[in-house]
């Protein structure tokens, strides 16, 4: 009864539409009604008419046939839409394509719920709605046009017609808008006389789904005499796009032992077709699972949402018993709601079974043995463990701890990152004479905590027995380094220090002999039996072998073992300074012009190799000058410098000025030296000191020469 009511309603509506337009419209090829609304029944019954569609190509409908977008429906030759079987779900819309020798068209059947019915009927009777049916008579009637995408040639082909009820001599139709005179241009055109609208090429709904054009009527001069009226052209979707998986690669993770129904990941595809039609209604399924063990159906995918969930018991998701912890699923996405006529695309989902720490590490044996020589450091044994968890995770990586037997912190244990073994090392040299054996208790754990139902057992601890081997150790100096302070210049043979070296091998009762190992300046010797160090030369603090007042020498202590062992001791001698160096004067040469106005000849400086207080302040003095009158004088500037000044201009010559400089040591030391002064001729900023008129010799040198001659003559007379 419900189907009959719907059929009657649709028929009446179609008749109303035809009557409304009859007085204004001539025959328009195509469906006489392009949009139908029917209420969603509980079920479409097989062979029961749903509604009646009226198609007229205005040429007798020769070779007319219909195609329905849903394969569960067909259209009889009389235009009745019927179900081929009982259908409970038909989607939101059906599209009916009709084609004859002279025309083709598309009609849309919208399936609405009961609460949508009232609104749907209002849409049917809208004045400016999809059908474009006027309430009152209008000069231009432009009904909406529906065009299937991807039509085959030939082109252009007629797709609709615009009608003007009031004929005017010479009037012309004009079409404008996007797709006509706006980009993309030239898709549609209109016959200016008949009003036939045609399409010039195949349309792509995914590029442009709707065109809003305007129709006007103009006179011969081009003046608009009617319109514009809107003409809507809608592109009917075809299932011409496969679903696409855009977000790959798809990788999901699930923890081993997860409950049945645990969501692993979501796989979603995209379909460029009309989302309101079955062309873009996707359904998902698992096509293939690799590997197929322990079950060929480890996972399930929600056909509508694309959620992948586990379907096996937690015990079957045991990573340690699986052939591989990685599963690959070939996922199919099919449009048309998964029907056989739908287009399919596939993608691969990789699912990794993540490890949880459900296995405690266990030592491969309860006791390990190690042997190490005393005095040696480094790794002495590798402790091996087994763990069934994933080696790439903290559930496998081991952490070792010495829990007993290491009071002196002589041992450390670290994990080998590649093998997971525990590398037990000696970090402080062991002494055989103190202890020949050591016993360590070691435990192993994982970086990650165990799951609550698992605990560390006895196999997670092990004992290490360490045997220390005795070796002949070299004697040890006490202290080392040794330090002593001495004055420089102490007499040769002075005792510096008596060294003390002991043999760690107390059980072997060995003797020790001493020798000099490194004595850079050759100043020292050592008694080979009692270790007394004495001097063989004068200790000089100013020697280049002394650094920062410290002289360093090395000595050996050799025991009587077989083979003998050697120990090295370092001696630092801090040398105290004595005043044993006279000060030196600089510079020793000065030049001055014979007509100089500034008679300050030179600034003299003094230095001393000794240390304070055996250095400055220095005392500068002139020794006795030659000649009848004084020619120069010297004056102090500061503790280390003095100024030499001429008392008058001198002739061009070389002069030797006798100067003495005395340090502040106790007793003080004096250096008698001479400053060579060249008096030169200066012309045009050039100084000429080459040819001197005469050589003036200092009185000191003359007196020394006379004294030497007198001494020689005195010896001859004897």
UniProtKB/TrEMBL annotation:
What this protein is called in its record is: Cadherin-13
Q: Which organism is it from?
A: Cairina moschata
For this UniProt record, give its keywords in alphabetical order, as a comma-separated list. Calcium, Cell adhesion, Cell membrane, Cleavage on pair of basic residues, Cytoplasm, Glycoprotein, GPI-anchor, Lipoprotein, Membrane, Metal-binding, Repeat, Signal, Transmembrane, Transmembrane helix
Pfam families found in the cross-reference section = Cadherin (PF00028), Cadherin_pro (PF08758)
Q: Does the keyword Oxidoreductase apply?
A: no
Q: Which residues cross the membrane?
A: 695-716
An example of a Gene Ontology cellular component annotation for this protein is:
catenin complex
Q: Which SMART domains match?
A: CA, Cadherin_pro
What broad class describes the main subcellular location of this protein?
membrane
According to its UniProt entry, the protein's GO biological process terms are: adherens junction organization; calcium-dependent cell-cell adhesion via plasma membrane cell adhesion molecules; cell migration; cell morphogenesis; cell-cell adhesion mediated by cadherin; cell-cell junction assembly; homophilic cell adhesion via plasma membrane adhesion molecules
Main function: Cadherins are calcium-dependent cell adhesion proteins. They preferentially interact with themselves in a homophilic manner in connecting cells; cadherins may thus contribute to the sorting of heterogeneous cell types. May act as a negative regulator of neural cell growth.
> What residue stretch is flagged as signal peptide?
1-22
Q: Which GO MF terms does the UniProt record name?
A: beta-catenin binding; cadherin binding; calcium ion binding
Q: Which residues form the Cadherin domain?
A: 172-245, 246-363, 364-477, 478-585, 584-695
CDD domains associated with the record: Cadherin_repeat
- Enumerate the InterPro entries for this protein: Cadherin, Cadherin-like_dom, Cadherin-like_sf, Cadherin_CS, Cadherin_pro_dom
